[in-house]
Design a protein that fits this description.
This protein is an alpha/beta fold. The chain has one domain. The chain has three helices and four strands. It has a four-stranded mixed beta sheet. Helix 1 runs parallel beside helix 3. It is globular. The protein starts with 10 loop residues before the first strand and ends with a strand. The relative contact order is 0.20.
């Protein structure tokens, strides 16, 4: 599963440390190629995650998720460039305005 599969929730689970429901997006695409397409793909993926949450489907698919804080965890293989950082900040503000969370993490190789 990956960011380019915009109609699929990549990963979902309960964070044992915080109790939050974490919905993870796995973004393997570089930001130095086809930036515009990458941004559109990410926007579509985030919109799919919001539909999954707001429709209530998340509570049917993830046992014991009702009543928990929901955070979308965007995990990138590559650091965000300036345009991507701007986009993620705007998306975070909109998602937080809807009552959910969004965070970006850079995947560090082992």
């Amino acid at each position: 599963m990956s960011v380019s599969q915009t109609d699929i929730i990549d990963f979902a689970g309960i964070d044992e440390a915080t109790g939050d429901l974490r919905l993870t997006i796995s973004d393997h695409l570089p930001w130095d190629q086809d930036e515009g397409d990458h941004l559109l793909i990410l926007q579509d993926k985030l919109n799919a995650y919001l539909r999954f949450i707001e429709s209530g489907e998340v509570f049917q698919k993830v046992p014991d998720s009702e009543g928990r804080s929901i955070v979308t965890d965007l995990v990138g293989k590559f650091p965000l460039n300036q345009q991507a950082q701007f986009f993620v900040e705007k998306a975070k503000a909109a998602i937080e305005g809807a009552g959910f969370g969004l965070q970006f993490r850079l995947l560090r190789p082992n």
